[in-house]
C-alpha cells in the first residue's frame, strides 16, 4: 500500500506578487516530505525512440536513492501524438496535478506540420525557465577540464512563440505591406512574394521573470556571477529591452555591475527590490553580446558562471556548453514554471538506436538529480551525482559513447550502466 502523497497541489501557488512561485524552504513548489511513509507523486513520460530505455534506467537510479516516489507513467511519444492528433489532456492534467515530471525525449518529425511536443509542453504549462547545468566529470572525453557553467534560458517567448508567416501566401504579402506602412525606420525590402516572416516577441515581464530565476538560482547555489546575453546592438526593441530589464533585476539583488556605467540610471525592479535577498555585490552582473559570448566560451569558459539568455540564443548556447563538457550524452536539463517543472535531457530521441539498449542514460539520470534537488532531497541528489561521477570516472560500466573507441566491445548497455550506478549508491 502506498503511503500518503504530499504533492497533491500547493495552496500557496496562487500567492505571489511575482510569478516566480517559490513557496517552500527548499525553493520548490512542493513541501519537503517529513513523515517516513510519505511519497512524492511524479509524472514519468518515457517519450519515444530511445526515451523509454533511458527513462527506465533513470527511474531505477532515482528509486535506488531511497527517495519514495509514486510514478505516474504517461505515454506521450510520437505514436500517441499521431494517434490522438495532439498531446493528450491526461498528460497535461497529470503534470498539473503532480507539479513535477521527468521526461524522455520525444521525436518531432521535420516538415510534417506538427510542432514540437517539447515546445508545446513548455508553453502549455508556462515552464518559462530552462536550466541546464554543464559540468565536467572526470572520465568524460572533452577538450576542456573543470567546466562548471549553468545556462538559464527563457523558454516561452522569442522566435519560439511560433508566430510565423509563410513566403508566397497573400496574407504574408499583406503583413509585409502593413509593416512597411507603419515602420518608422527600416522597411522590409525583399519581395512580397518570396519573403517569409517569423515574429520575435520579448516582454518586460518575461525577461524579469527569467532573470529573477537566474538570480534566485545563483543565490541558492552560491554562484558568483550572472552574464546576461543577447544581441541588443542589432535588435533594440527586443534584445534592448532584455538588457534594460536584466539590469533592473540585477539592481534589485544588489549585484555588482562589472561595467559600472551600465548601472547608471537603472531603477531596481520595484516588484523585487526589498523582497529578494540583497547580495551586496557578492554576485557580479555582466553583459555580453551573443556572438562574442560564443567565442569567449570556447576560449576562456572559466570566466563565466550562470548565463541567462532569451530562448533562441539559450538553445544554441546550451548545445555549445554541452559540447564543452563532452557532448549531449551528459547534459541534463530542467524546465521550471509556476505550475510545475519538467526534467529532461538536452539530447533528442536518437531514434536510430531505438530498442538497442545502447545509448547513454547519464543526461536523464543527471536530470533526475536536478529533480531531487528541486524536491528538496539534496542528500539523495548528491548521492546520485556521486555515483554517476564514480561510474564515469572508472570508465568500465559505461556506454559506447564514453569509451575512447566507440566500437569498444566492453561498452555496456543503457540498463547495465544504470545498474552500475545503483551498485555504487548501495556501496555508499
Ligand atoms: P539527438 O540528440 O536525438 O541525436 C543526435 C545524435 O547524438 C544521435 O544520433 C547519437 O549519435 C547522439 N546521441 C544523442 N543522445 C545520445 C545518448 N543518450 N547517448 C549516446 N548518444 C546520443 O538529436 P536529433 O537526431 O537531432 O533529434 C532526434 C529527434 O529528437 C528529433 O525528432 C528532435 O526533434 C527530437 N528532440 C527532442 C528533444 C526533447 O525531447 N527534448 C530534444 C532534442 C531533439
Which residues form runs of ≥5 with pLDDT under 50? 8-23
Number of strands: 13
User: What's the SSE pattern?
Assistant: EHEHHEHEEEHEHEHEEHEHEEHHH
The main sheet orders its strands as 2-1-3-13-12-4-5-11-8-10-9
Rounded to an integer, what's the Rg over CA atoms?
Answer: 22 Å
How many discrete domains?
3
Q: What would you note in describing this structure?
A:
With 428 residues, this protein is of the alpha/beta class. The protein folds into three domains: 1-147 and 325-428, 3-Layer(aba) Sandwich (Isopropylmalate Dehydrogenase); 164-198, no CATH class; 202-307, no CATH class. It has twelve helices and 13 strands. An eleven-stranded mixed beta sheet has the order 2-1-3-13-12-4-5-11-8-10-9, sandwiched between helices. Helix 6 (204-220) crosses helix 7, helix 8 (290-299) packs parallel to helix 9 (311-324) and helix 10 (362-374) runs antiparallel to helix 11. Bound molecules: nicotinamide-adenine-dinucleotide. Residues 105-108, 118, 328-329, 344, 347-350, 352, 359-360, 363, 401 line the site of nicotinamide-adenine-dinucleotide (NAD).
